[in-house]
Structures are given as structure tokens and as C-alpha cells.
Amino acid sequence: MNKNFTLLVSLILTFLITKTTQAQSWEVYDTKIQLQSRLIYDEIDLLSETVRIGKAGNELSLLSSDLRPAVSLVGTEIYQYLEPWIIVKGPKGIGAFHEYGQQVLPLEYDKIDTYFNMLLASKGNEYWLFQRGFNKTTYLGELDEAKITNTGLIIIRKGTEYSMPLSPNPDKTFELLSDNNGEFVLAKEASGFGLINREGNYVMDPIIETMQHTHGNFYYGFNQDQYLLIEGNDIKSNIRYNSFHKITFENDIMLEYIHGKLRRVMEDDGILLDDVGMTAVNKIGQDLYNVHFRDARIGLLGKKGWLVKPMLEVDEIKFGNEGLFPAKSKGAFGFVNASGAWVIKPQYAETTLFSEKMAAYRTTQNWGLIRSSGELVSDASWEEIKPFQKGLAIAKANGKYFLLNTFGAALNTEGFDNIYRTTDGYFMVEKSGKSGLLDSEANEVIPAEFEKLRRERKNFVIVQKDGLTGVINEAGEVILPLAYEKILVDWANEQIFTKNKYVPTVIQLSEEPGKKNKKGA
């Protein structure tokens, strides 16, 4: 055999072996653990039911339905997936592909924001806008700021001037364009404030002297000696309430004063409470207010009226649950009902909300349990007690975690380093750096002996031990052996991906001296 030919073959085999030993092999099973295919990728990412990414060496690919490379994504890693956009990172920056495979922005930008079929990309102080409907990228210029509003408008700022390049008047400038969590942009011109809809048209002309956003599509304003509560509308915005009396808006509370005296608590579009004798209103949560009166009564006001009617001998009333509200009097907490009567007298340093007719109380440092009837369930001996769910609570003592029943008894005699409740009522537990699983009644399902544990669904638990990953059921029976680097599950397509080290099989051919290989051998 020709020595040069032998050397060439040897070099090719060496190159191929080096390349393949750096890669990884993946096996794809169905949910009945029947092998479907074998793949060679370093990594596989399942971004959605239809978007799968494969990486082999420096090649990043969008995979077809049969998991073959379909579109090269050019870059080195997936930066972000913002359906339907795949943001890809490369040596020079980030770019974007549509999940169908079309590259819409090269990998050279610092930042990309998305809104359905629009992408706003920036590089330094330069901005570009891609619109899929027109399949084109528009250069917006060097700007101080550019953003996509939550309704899909583009707002840009250069110096002190604002404009909307996609509006019916792209060259029109404003003193201010302010986005908010509503559906309308607050605009300011020399003539005043107005509101602009998602099409870029005024639905309230810019004539209001002062205006600011409150919540949703509501705004607070002042014009021609009148205080205004305004609601945005796609056709024409409405003034829902107007008054010559002073309305303040501070600390997210709107109050109306008549002849200098507090008279009304306002909501976004009108009056929430009209009562005489009010002296102060404190916001304690979303749409929750403690209202103070001159006669020392305090009530808890909600979006639909009184949650707790004004009562005496109380300093503070908190949001409640199951018809009982934590309330403070002379430095101690108890519980009141909606009528403003004490159900559990103030005697605790702190309380939690009732959950399943059980609440935790704190005396000095530690916590105990009480029932909604006021019955003492357990003494204050716990560092922490979390709310009851389905008859069990997670509690902490001496740095260890336990499960408590409704009698205050610990169901596990030996504490765990941590306990996490799963969405279906099971409990992930940690002990000495290992993980295990308890069922909804605190019985051990899987002992705490795994480095990692993830319960995908009933009787399908992905576990890791000694650096290898497998799948077991809740009886501890092996579904897939602990022999893999990684396991991914795509339940929508009923596929399980297992990652292995790939070791190629090398076949060495020998030739007897003096003989030539037959043709076709």
C-alpha cells in the first residue's frame, strides 16, 4: 500500500475521531421508554413545543421536527427566547431569528427589544427597527432613548424632543411622551397634556394643564380650576369625575377636601368613600386603606367598601383571610371580624393570616399556632411557621424544617435542612446536601440521597447521583438508569432526551504482507 495514502487515511481518521470524541451522543425515547433515535450534539435546548436547538462544536442550529439541523443560527449560544423570536449571541453581539428560521437581524447589536412582529435593536446610541409585516429594517438614527410601549408604539427621544416615527405624524415633536401600564401614552405639548392611543392619534387633545397616570387607563388632572379623573378610551377619552374642590394624589392615594376638610376617598374614576369626620387615610396594600376618624375609630376600606367597619380601641387593621383580620391595639395583635368586633383579643406580638382555620402567632421570638376559634394549638416554640395547605404546614426549629399537622405535631422526627412544597402537594426535602421526596401525607417516597431531584410528574422523577442522571418512579424503581449526563423531557411531543459521552467505535484494518486489498473491500 502507498505510504503517502496510508498517512493520509491515518490523518483523516485522527481528525474524525478527535471531532466526534468532543461531541456528545443523545438518545431520544418516547414516554414508554422506547428508543426512537440517536443524535450527535454537544447540547440540545427545548425552547418550546416546536422550537428545538442543537449545538455541535461551533455550529448552532434550529432543528427540524425529526431533530436534524434545519437552519444555521450563526452564533455561539442562545441569548434569549422571546416567542416567536430567538435572540442569538455571537462574537460581535446579538441578533435575531424568527422561530420559523428567518434571520431578521445580524449578530452585531448590544440590545434587542421585541413586540409581536417588531424588533427594536440598538448599538451604542444608534437604533434600528425591524417590522416583519414589511420584512424590512429601518434605521432610526442616533438617539438618546428609544422604546416600544406596551401597546406597540415606538417612542424616541433626542435631546428634549420626543416623537413617534410610526405614528400618522412621524415628524411631530412633543415635550414629553410617557409610557405606563395602561393602553394610552401621556403626551405633553406647549398647549398642555393629552392622551394618545395605540394608533398614534389623540383621544384627548393636549389641553389639560397638568395630568399624571394613576392606574390602568385612568389619569388624574387639573384644568381651569377643576380637578379631573380621566379614563382613556380608544375613540374619545372621558372625564369621569370633576370637582372644584381640592383633590390630592400622593402616595398612591386620592383624597378630596371640601372647605379644607377631608371628605372623600377617591378611586380611579369617582368616589370610593364619602363620609364626614375623616382625619387621615393610610394605604396598606393594593386597594386597601386604613381610614381614621375624629372619634378615634379606624376601619379597613377595600375596593367595594368596608372590609372591617370603623371600630374603637384599635390602632391598625391589616388585610385578612377567612373572615378574620389581624388588628393591633396598644402594641398587641389579635383578630377582628368584618363587623369590627374582637374575635381573638389582642395579646400577640405578631400574627399571620388564617389558612384552613389555622394561624401562627408570635410572642417574643418564637411562633405557635391558634385556631380561628381562639383555641391555643401549640406553644410558641418554632422559629417560623408557614401557612397551612391541605392540612400541613412547614415549620422551622433549631435551624431544621418539619411538617406540622393541624394539632401542631411534627410528622418527621428528624428535621431537614429545607422543605419545599410542590404544586401538587408533595414535598421536596434537603438533608446534608442531598435531596429526597415526601408525599402529601409526609411519608418518605424517595430517600434524601440524591444530589439533584426534579419531579416532572407523578411517577416520573429525574434524579442525579455521583454526577450521573436517571429517572425513577415513586416506588424507587428505575425507569432510566443513572447513567446519563443530562435528561430533558418534552411532554408535549412525548419525547425524552438523554445525553451521553460519545465514544466512537474504531475499526482497524490490517493487511497481510504481499497481499492487496480486493476491489470493493
Automatic annotation (TrEMBL):
<feature type="signal peptide">
    <location>
        <begin position="1"/>
        <end position="25"/>
    </location>
</feature>
<dbReference type="InterPro" id="IPR032774">
    <property type="entry name" value="WG_beta_rep"/>
</dbReference>
<dbReference type="Pfam" id="PF14903">
    <property type="entry name" value="WG_beta_rep"/>
</dbReference>
<protein>
    <submittedName>
        <fullName>WG containing repeat-containing protein</fullName>
    </submittedName>
</protein>
<keyword id="KW-0732">Signal</keyword>
